[in-house]
């Protein structure tokens, strides 16, 4: 697993400094969970998730679970991963649902032969979802 990248750009305004401090506190309070969630999503869906694709997935979860996404999570990938960590108990069953994943995949992937094979592999993997909080499942998944 990669380490979390550090953001070293200047923070000129008081608001950006406050936002950065809030994100750092949030990352510290959630520990490694945002990193596990990022790795879980990448492994499950087979691709890197940008903040836009994470937000799309979060908006689908919000509409189904009656949750809300805070301002920072809408604007920052790390804060959004923290939002996932804070709501993981509710979001994980939805994300691990193969019908939900299938509809999300069909919305993001054009249908050709290689993608159909990939979808079939992902659906097989969804029948046995891995909870990133359970270390024994993480160690034993191949």
Account of the 3D structure:
Helix 1 runs parallel beside helix 5, helix 3 (51-65) runs parallel beside helix 5 (77-86) and helix 7 (98-108) packs antiparallel against helix 8 (113-126). This protein has one domain (18-136). The relative contact order is 0.13. The longest helix has 17 residues, at 14-30. Mean pLDDT is 78; it is low at 109-113. It is built from 9 helices and no strands. The two termini are 15 Å apart. The protein is globular and about 45 Å long. It has 142 residues and is mainly α. The protein has helices at residues 14-30, 33-45, 51-65, 71-75, 77-86, 88-95, 98-108, 113-126, 135-140. Residues 1-12 have a biased composition (Basic residues). Residues 1-21 are annotated as: Disordered.
* Helix and strand sequence: HHHHHHHHH
How many runs of DSSP E, i.e. beta strands? Answer: 0
Structural class: mainly alpha
Tally of helical runs: 9
Uncertain parts = 109-113
How many domains? The number is: 1
First-residue to last-residue Cα separation: 15 Å
Q: Could you estimate the helical fraction of the residues in percent?
A: 55-70%
Radius of gyration: 16 Å
Overall 3D form? globular
The major β-sheet equals: none
Determine the mean pLDDT. Answer: 78
Per DSSP, what share of the residues sits in E-state strands of 2 or more residues?
Answer: under 5%
């Amino acid at each position: 697993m990669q380490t979390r990248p550090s953001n070293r750009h200047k923070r000129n305004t008081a608001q950006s400094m406050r936002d950065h401090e809030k994100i750092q506190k949030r990352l510290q309070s959630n520990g490694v969970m945002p990193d596990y969630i990022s790795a879980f999503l990448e492994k499950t869906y087979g691709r890197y998730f940008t903040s836009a694709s994470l937000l799309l997935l979060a908006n689908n979860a919000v509409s189904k679970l009656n949750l809300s996404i805070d301002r920072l999570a809408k604007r920052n990938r790390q804060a959004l991963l923290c939002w996932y960590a804070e709501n993981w108990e509710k979001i994980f069953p939805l994300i691990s649902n193969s019908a939900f994943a299938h509809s999300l995949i069909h919305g993001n992937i054009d249908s050709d032969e290689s993608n159909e094979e990939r979808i079939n592999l992902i659906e097989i993997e969804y029948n046995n979802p891995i909870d990133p909080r359970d270390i024994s499942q993480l160690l034993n998944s191949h």
